[in-house]
Amino acid sequence: MDNHEFLKVISNSFKKFLETGSRSNEKLKILHSAIATDIVNRLGNGYSVHSLGIGKGQEMKVNGRYIDKTVDITIMKAGKPIAGIAVKFVMQNYSQNSNNYFENMLGETANIRCGKIPYFQIFIIPDKLPYYKKDGTFQKWETFTVHNSHKYKVLSQDNIETSIHTPTKTLLFVIKLPEPTKPILNKQEYKEYYTNLKCLNVETSQEVYGIFESAVIYNNYEDFANKVVHYIQFM
User: Fold this and answer.
1) What does the alpha-carbon distance between residue 196 and residue 217 come to, in Å, rounded to a whole number?
2) Where are the extended beta strands (E) located within 52-107?
């Protein structure tokens, strides 16, 4: 799967989100299964994978240092889990949860990595996304900013060998959705606008968030996948 194909998977996941809503895991089946299939195909013979949308369609619970954790994508070898990949796709109301997303990511990473299992993270977010009130009324557009990305820049500088809370490798993937050509007043209008588009063209964002060092890969799925595979094969 190259970057163009990855964007198509993201587009299909977003369409399924519009169709089924935020509480359904149908959008995750599309995204997780595509990533899991691609990684296990790159790894080759001797490896298998547990994920939504593949085989029995179930995630696997992996033994962590402190608590067992259900992992989005678990790579298996000789019947044992040898690596995990967490996938997060944020589609709305980012600012109120921004720090929670990041802190939870650090905590779950430390739990799994302290259990001697490499753990990778994928974080996908539009560079512009809606923020709704509790009643579903559109309140404002949010943007993913340099301020939001700063914590990922700091994360990118970590030494993964000594910073156990740092993912073995993180993919930060910021996308750009087509700009609405009319005002959006609520969730239903947002859904209808994007559902009725003849072509939902999802692109990588062209915003500049600075330079990321080796622990974080920005907007390059192929590079991330290659590094995940290389790390697992040479463990």
Assistant:
1) 33
2) 60-62, 69-71, 73-77, 80-89
Strands 119-126 and 69-71: unpaired
Give the C-alpha separation, 31 to 6, whole Å.
Answer: 9
Nearest one of 124, 122, 125 to 144, comparing CA atoms: 125
Q: Are 3 and 221 in contact (CB under 8 A)?
A: yes
Q: What one-character DSSP code corresponds to residue 25?
A: S
Tokens linked to 78? 């000789």
CA 203 to CA 164: how far, in whole Å? 33
**Angle at the Cα of 227 (from 222 to 231), degrees rounded to 5?**
150
Question: What separation in angstroms does the CA of 141 have from each of 23, 60, 130, 192?
Answer: 21, 36, 5, 17
Q: Where are the domains of the chain?
A: 3-233
- Rounded CA separation 184/195 (Å): 13
- Distance of alpha carbon 86 from alpha carbon 195, whole angstroms: 27
- How many of the other CB atoms lie within 10 Å of CB of 12? 16
Q: Report the C-alpha gap between 189 and 84 in whole angstroms.
A: 37
pLDDT tens series, the chain, 235 aa: 999 999 999 999 999 999 998 888 999 999 999 999 999 999 999 999 999 999 888 999 999 999 999 999 999 999 999 999 999 999 999 988 999 999 999 999 999 999 999 999 999 999 999 999 989 899 999 999 999 999 999 999 999 999 999 999 999 999 999 999 889 999 999 999 999 998 899 999 999 999 999 999 999 999 999 999 999 999 8
